[in-house]
Amino acid sequence: MLSPEDAWSAIATEAETLGIEQVARADAVGRVLAEDLTATVDVPAHDVSAMDGFALDGDVEAGGTLPVDGIVAAGDPPGAELRTGAALRIMTGAPAPAGADRVIPIEQTEFEAGDAGTGTVRIVETVPAGSHIRCQAEVTAAGGPLLAEGELLTPGGAGVLATHGIHEAPVYRRPTVATLSTGDEVVPAEAEPGPGQLRDSHRDFLRAALSQLGIEARSLGIARDDPAELRARVERGLDSDVLLISGGVSMGEFDFVEQVLGDTGLGCRILFDAVAIQPGKPLVAARHDRGWVFGLPGNPASAMVTYWLLVRPLLRQMTGIADSFWQGALRGRLKGGLPFAKGRDRFLPCRLEFSSGEVLVDPRPPLGSHDLVAYGAGAGLVRVPKFSAPAAAGESCEVLPL
Question: Are 100 and 57 in contact (CB under 8 A)?
Fold first, then answer.
């Protein structure tokens, strides 16, 4: 039985990104860039004003006055010329006239308007040379770096691409994922369970969790506790990059997942079949030539914990996002006590509060690995290291926000 760190190491050793695809820039938001992108234009395209005000060709003492020869608006073509000893009114984003070395904000002047944008301006407060002029290409220069491979494209990044006329972005492909529930006692969530039956919660949990990563899951339904039926459904799922099977991975008489995956005809290679965590000990991880198979525990809380701790980081890595087991965990302070842990690390649901720079962790100890409600309502997982004594309110802890 592996520690969670060793289980992740076994996964990470074989994790790799998928292929590259071109995606429309708006649809690429939240995806990882697979190549460096180069600027196509200078930004700004020429020297422009950063303020509404007056363009001058040199220093003017406070109290001095200048004639105003006209106005330069945003959208005007470059080429306006500034007469020595005069000023031009200028709007934010307008091209700076030839000869201008500064812009005085309108708030620091008194303007007496004449005809057609002309008039006289009195300088109330001066500014040094270079003030409020944005120089050509100071943000990006055509041919220079724009966005780097490995960056997550944000909504702002989509705007950057639009500015440069880049309509598609090269991003890492998201994995295709199939889900398969198992068990004679399991019925679809839409069905009315009979005596001894229960609704399938795994499919909807996994579908929602995968949706958070932008992945649309393909459901293979529910396999009965029959090795032949299970194998047939598993074979259908092996054309996906990742197959997530829930249930059938423990030591029971009708737990056939590891047996089926061990069949040499399927081409699967089992990496491990148990992890020293509670809940979530029975977890099967396997590789085949087209991707991954995970056999998640049948208990709903166990399935959630193993997905969050070990499957989700792999899926993120496959899309180019740096992630690993327990990455993103924070130090927090307990609002309530924690029970002791024996020979396995425990991961308990909790609620989180962020107050004055501190993370407050409110543990919600579950009834057991079947307590779907406690884990389903948790905003994080608080870690109780193995062989640790009970912890009291006020003590520090490690917590992973979900």
Answer: yes
Q: Where are the beta strands (DSSP E) in 3-162?
A: 20-24, 37-38, 48-49, 53-56, 65-72, 87-90, 102-105, 109-113, 119-123, 133-134, 145-147
Q: Which residues pair with 285 in a beta bridge?
A: 272, 294
Selection from 20, 17, 30 nearest residue 314 by Cα: 17
Q: What does R_g of the chain's alpha carbons equal in angstroms?
A: 31
pLDDT at 263 over 90: no
Class of the CATH domain delimited by 21-41+146-172:
alpha beta
| Alpha-carbon gap, residue 164 to 104, rounded angstroms | 30
Tokens linked to 203: 């499919």
How far is Cα 371 from Cα 368, in angstroms, rounded to an integer?
Answer: 5
* CATH of range 330-401; options 1.10.10.60, 3.40.50.20, 2.40.340.10, 3.40.50.300: 2.40.340.10
Residue reference for tokens 């966005």 = 147
Pair type for strands 177-182 and 242-246: parallel
CATH 2.170.190.11 boundaries in the chain: 48-134
* Residues near 212 by beta carbon (within 8 Å), at least 6 away in sequence: none
274-320 pLDDT tens trace: 999 999 999 999 999 889 999 999 999 999 999 999 999 999 999 99
| Residues near 341 by beta carbon (within 8 Å), at least 6 away in sequence | 278, 384, 385, 386, 387, 388
* Whole-number Å distance between alpha carbons of 173 and 23: 10
Q: What is the pLDDT of residue 368?
A: 77
Looking at the chain, the domain(s) classified CATH 2.40.340.10 span 330-401
Give the DSSP H/E element, type plus range, for residue 203: helix 202-212
3-state helix, strand, coil in the chain (%, to 5): 20, 35, 50
Q: How many CB atoms within 10 Å of residue 266?
A: 16
Q: What is the pTM of this model?
A: 0.87
Q: Are 294 and 241 in contact (CB under 8 A)?
A: no
| Superfamily classification of domain 48-134 | Molybdopterin biosynthesis moea protein, domain 3. (2.170.190.11)
CATH 3.40.980.10 is held by the domain 4-17+174-318: yes
